[in-house]
Specification:
single chain; 495 residues; alpha/beta; TIM Barrel; 18 helices; 40% helix; globular
Length: 495
């Protein structure tokens, strides 16, 4: 069955409170997806954002982002009062997130809701805390202690709690009990609201494609509470960290800084943490896109303390042993392998052996120097075709930035001229939808024909990423009809 979907992060939804969330606008987006004949809504990781506001650098591999809790829903529950938050300054740009204001204002409002919550009488809250205790206890303590140390990373805490000594754990649990309860409350509300939104999407024929980073952030509850899982020394400092080697796009490579897994430990435990992580993901999502799939075959290890990624080296990952463990536990599961970038024969074999669909990105196709795997005539059915991803330039801006030779190739391939920007963008959309790929996913910015101002992320940069939001009423009835017709023509419409 041929299907299609739209990529739009939760944070990029319109809303009156500075960031997209599980609000009425999210439900309206689901309605639009249904009317446009879509099957999938692809989002980015849902975790609480840390350094650089990146959803790929989260404080937890399991927790949800409190920014996504809808304040109007809390008011309907009687946890907020009319007039308490509507006039607050959450950021005054309709198409951009002001994370500093979100941090300073939204948590203050959420604390008001917590103070009114009768949690001791809420059996569902008690049940939630019990069911999620395997990660919630560590996470809530981590966030409470982090707040105690003025937001510093756990590496800068006092040694007794940094090293998770039992006496220190007991002392901080007693000292920060109320704060821990607040963070548990936030996760409870997040889970309730997301479960309701996902159920609404599923009832309307929309499946959620979620996204998980392969790595956890160093500044995270996972990195602090589970040192045995990572390549740490006796002082719980990383010996090596994650990244990507230098290439044509980056002379120094990419220094991500995430702690690397001790894959021998994970193998000895039967990959128990990974199984639990994927169980959690399949409760949140219908399909899981696994970021940086190459890292399971080989991973790039950079000595801790290096200022660039140039001094790193490739090391062998778990390969099929991990995926055999997942298959034994789950059976066949819907996973998308993010297999972009330079791929070795062993990486391609790993993707093939798992049977997971890989990704094809149209923006990577038109290189006048050589015809690569991303040219549409090289696609296979078992893949997901994209015009671009959250890491790419929008189609309109990408085409504007092409070299003269690459643009000439694209123009000849699609029989287009440069006269009509919108029709040029739609030519690439139609090419993606018409491909043999079982699934095609188009970023919302491309359907809106937006330029570089709507780019979500520019890898290896800080300060301007993860901010773009879709303006209210940007998705019109006319656009809905055009999307649905295009998807129907190419046999993908669910209507």
């Amino acid at each position: 069955m041929r299907t299609c979907g739209i990529l739009l992060p939760i944070s990029s939804l319109p809303s009156p409170y500075g960031i997209g969330c599980f609000s009425k606008e999210a439900y309206e987006f689901v309605d639009r997806l249904k009317d446009a004949g879509q099957t999938y809504w692809q989002i980015l990781p849902l975790g609480p954002t840390g350094f650089g506001d990146s959803p790929y650098q989260s404080f937890s591999a399991f927790a949800g982002n409190p920014y996504f809790i809808d304040l109007d829903t809390l008011r309907e529950e009687g946890l907020l009062m009319p007039g308490e938050y509507e006039s607050l300054d959450f950021g005054d740009e309709a198409n951009s997130v002001d994370y500093a204001k979100q941090y300073s204002v939204r948590f203050r409002v959420l604390k008001l809701a917590y103070d009114r919550a009768q949690l001791e009488e809420d059996e569902a809250f008690v049940r939630f805390c019990e069911d999620e205790s395997y990660w919630l206890e560590d996470y809530s303590l981590y966030m409470a202690v982090k707040r105690h140390f003025s937001g510093k990373s756990w590496t800068q805490w006092e040694d007794d709690i940094r090293l998770c000594k039992p006496d220190a754990i007991r002392r901080y649990r007693n000292q920060c009990g109320e704060e821990m309860r607040f963070y548990k409350f936030l996760q409870y509300e997040f889970a309730k609201q997301w479960k309701k939104l996902k159920a609404y999407a599923n009832e309307n024929g929309i499946r959620i494609i979620g996204d998980i980073p392969i790595y956890v952030a160093f500044d995270s509850a996972d990195g602090w509470a589970n040192p045995e899982m990572f390549q740490y020394n006796e002082e719980r400092r990383p010996t090596m960290v994650a990244g990507c080697p230098p290439d044509a796009f980056s002379a120094d490579g990419q220094l991500w800084g995430n702690p690397l897994y001790d894959w021998d430990y994970h193998e000895r435990t039967g990959y128990a943490w990974w199984i639990r992580r994927m169980e959690h993901c399949f409760r949140l999502y219908d399909v899981v896109r696994v970021d940086h799939f190459r890292g399971f075959d080989e991973y790039y290890a950079i000595p801790y303390g290096d200022k660039t990624a140039a001094g790193g080296c490739w090391k062998k990952g778990p390969g099929m042993k991990l995926f055999d463990a997942l298959r034994t536990h789950f059976g066949k599961v819907p996973i998308i392998a993010e297999d972009l970038g330079y791929l070795t024969d062993s990486v391609m074999k790993l993707v093939e052996d798992t049977g997971y669909p890989g990704m094809k990105v149209m923006e990577f196709a038109f290189d006048s120097r050589e015809a690569g795997d991303y040219m549409p005539y090289n696609y296979t059915r078992n893949c997901v075709a994209y015009t671009g991803t959250h890491d790419n330039q929008t189609l309109a801006a990408w085409y504007d930035e092409l070299s003269e030779a690459d643009r000439a190739l694209a123009a000849e391939y699609l029989h287009i001229t440069d006269e009509d920007r919108e029709e040029t963008v739609w030519a690439f959309i139609r090419l993606t939808l018409s491909s043999v790929a079982d699934t095609a996913v188009i970023p919302m910015q491309d359907y809106l024909c937006l330029g570089s101002e709507a780019r979500i992320n520019h890898p290896s940069t800080l300060g301007t990423n993860w901010k773009w939001r879709m303006k209210k009423d940007a998705w019109t009835d006319e656009l809905t009809d055009r999307i649905q017709r295009a998807c129907k023509v190419y046999g993908r419409s669910a209507k």
